[in-house]
## 1
Amino acid sequence: MFDTLLRKRDFYAGMLMTLLGIGVTFNATTYTLGTLMHMGPGMFPFLLGIVLTGLGLTIFGTALATPLGEDEHILPRQREWKAWGFILAGPISFIVLGEFFGMVPATFACVFVSSLGDRDSTWKGSFLLAAGVTFFGVLLFAYVLQVPFPMFRWGH
């Protein structure tokens, strides 16, 4: 039975999410939690860690309860290095462009570059998606939530 469990994707996914959730929960306790009425900076990561731990245990439980499927490979048979590269380059571009050029170029580049990781994406579709997400993202974060992140800036 244990040999079968080690060949299941849900076993590894559940364990990884559980460990991540436990780590986030314990790290959040280094910040002030506050109360539910006056939340401190550690409250959201603490609750997020608990939810991640619960989801991880649920996924792990499904690995225990379900039989071994036919396609239980942990890594995909066909590696999509180009897609993985684009998806990883998206958040990196957000960090770099956000630091030097502001929220609008950073958000646009993040979504545009990440969407190119889809094998069915087109340049036009990626551009339109990035423009739409940037518009609504700026509307939400800059105007509604008033996050102090400049929309445009030049240099550091």
## 2
Amino acid sequence: MPKSKFLKIPKKQGETMLRLAKKLGLVDRTEKIQRDKTHLYVPLSNKPPRKKLESLQQQTCSFEIVTRSLLEKKKQPSLAQLLENKLPKHLLSTLPHVADFVGDIGIVEIPSKLERYKNVIGEAILQTNKNLQTVLAKAGAVSGPYRLREFTAIGGVPKTETVHSEYGCRFHVDVARAYFSPRLSHEHDRIASLVQEGESVVDLFAGVGPFAVMIAKRRQTARVYAVDINPEAIALLKKNIRLNRVYGRVHPILGDARQVVSSRLADVADRVIMNLPETAIEFVDAGCRALKPEGGILHFYSFTTASHSLENIKNVFVEAVEKNGRKVDQFLYCRSVRETAPHEHQVVLDARIL
């Protein structure tokens, strides 16, 4: 049996590291991922560049490179192969290469050139992803105060509700009624790992609760106040509190973040999460007011573009904090979280506020 190089990674970090390794082009997708009780073994592409391995190590926990025997793998036809006789050949190169997977729902963006073939594409995606029941096509941009978008069912069961699993937590999600992004799974895990026992956390734009529930699941004595203006999101959050057995540790609150902080949550937080990148800068006053008088940590999310760099974001954030009578003592972590469009990224600033 031929042998090859594998990334040996702990199962607890498997989801995050596998996604990053694929993004860096380190994974040999023609070979099977192997596993034992404690680790995953991810097949490496031939002679992976050292810089990419170093980048992976900087973004995740440590890993080993080991030699293992390859397993036989049944070749799965690609999306393009399944569709080569159903679409004009010149359109095969425009097929979507990226999909979001929320539970058993796959979400894709169909280029306008392929609009008339969207149902054929949807059914083909189901064939290449046996765990899916539904394929949805984006039918508009995220918009409105609830951050929602419209979808069109193009394959399988026409639904928008599912149960999504992430780092040992399960979430009732309805992608048409409440905002949720599976691309933030690493952030949910990262923030939850930073919270200490006994902390009081305010999640100002909680959605269905991926930050709040994961924190409460990990930290038995932490108290999380989860605020959202969308009643559908709060209804799903309440279901997720019960599903993950964190009742009494996550406190769902329906309302506008600024008004809720002013009336109920002033001076209570050791840590505030502000995952509303479109307009979070407008709520820095609420974030600052929620923190305890002696200060705490603020996790602030925003967008960078070609003309608005991470340094610009940091400067605007510092000014907003100072306008509210607080001070940025130190930036603890500043990094891109995900690419949202060409030359546009969602970024996070972890700042210690005094």
## 3
Amino acid sequence: MTLGIAHREGETIVLDLLREYRPPFSPETVCADYASLIKKYRCSQTFGDRYAGEWVVEGFRKYGVHYEECEQTRTELYLNTVPLINSCSVALLDNERSCSSSCRLSGRLQA
């Protein structure tokens, strides 16, 4: 389960924070940790895919963060992000796992 926090600087979207929990993990612990980070960035809501149904929505609600499910699928979100990355409209963090995951997904989508 991942969390990214970003802000806009003019026409550029800047990724400020990237966190990941890899299984096995406690959903309760992840929601508590991520809600704390979200609040440190003075946010009160987050957006995400429909991963694991209602427990994510409820988990964040318990810690005072509104979780809104995106209408797009994870793949659609990625496909819509690729042009932004290619046009340098997004400033990403130097994160090896994120880069390799994006490259693997990009290769599968092009095949």
## 4
Amino acid sequence: MRTDVRWARIERDGGTFDFSAERSAFALARTGGFRILGILAYGHPIHTQNRAPSTAAEREGFARFAEAAERELGNLVDGWEVWNEPNHPLFWPPAPDARAFVALFERAAEAIWQVRPQRQLVAGGLSEVDQAYLDQIRRPVAAFLRRGPVALSLHPYRKSNPETLFGDLSKAGLIDATGRAVTPEGVPIWITEWGYCRLWPAVGPTLQGEMDVRIPMVTAALGVPLTILFELVDGGPQTKSQYTCGLLEAGSLRPHPAAQLWEQGAWLFRQVSVERPGVVQVNGHWSVAAVGGSVSWGEGPAVAGLCSDSLGPNGSAVPGLRVGNTVICYTRQS
């Protein structure tokens, strides 16, 4: 579960930190089986006048907040993502500044690692595959690998199929010779937010689920250690497309078709383990090596023909799993 830990909400009076609501919510989430990636983010009305931190003094204020978060919530989280989409003016007001973001990440890392030296840190998920911004932060972020575990995260939203991510990452120089998503300096790529929304043009409830199910297959084929789907529950008015990305309805928690399709996909995902990164595209379908065979997926009858020896319950053979118009199957090695 990836969720905000907002500086302005925690330090309301400009000097005292109150993590009680987060502590209670995170503890409840852990009992439900969630692991948690906390997002340390956003400006402060007193310290930064609600802008992103841009001065040394503002970064010191954020670092005190980050250190307090580790001390108070560190036993409940699995990692910290420093900021959210710093390359987007909505989240880094008044305008994105890669140099200022790197300086903030450095100071926050020092503060967190002072409390727990091996805490996993993630450089805030970039909006889309922003090559110009990536080129400015890649090497500075990689320098932190000498000091502790660091990843760089992306939010590769798109109106096209999830598989188009392969081409985007390749163009940006973010796929190594083995097919793994990684920067040239060796920083692993995480996908900390990605999904499809029902009100996007030509998507709708069923295609939303179909594309959501293909996301983890794409990222597994890229060797991505962590992928987080956006989002579990609808976040706002259903007249706005950005709030129609959830698997469940707000309030009632009734499942959308995407949730039902996700359950089908999850059944197959639990049966197999991807062995190594590197996707193969043949005749309109995709395959990735799995333990003892391969996982293949695509649209149409040609893909279904690949699935004659697909894994079923208790190892029985089934003709494949259909999720919307997508066919997914695991094929054993002969």
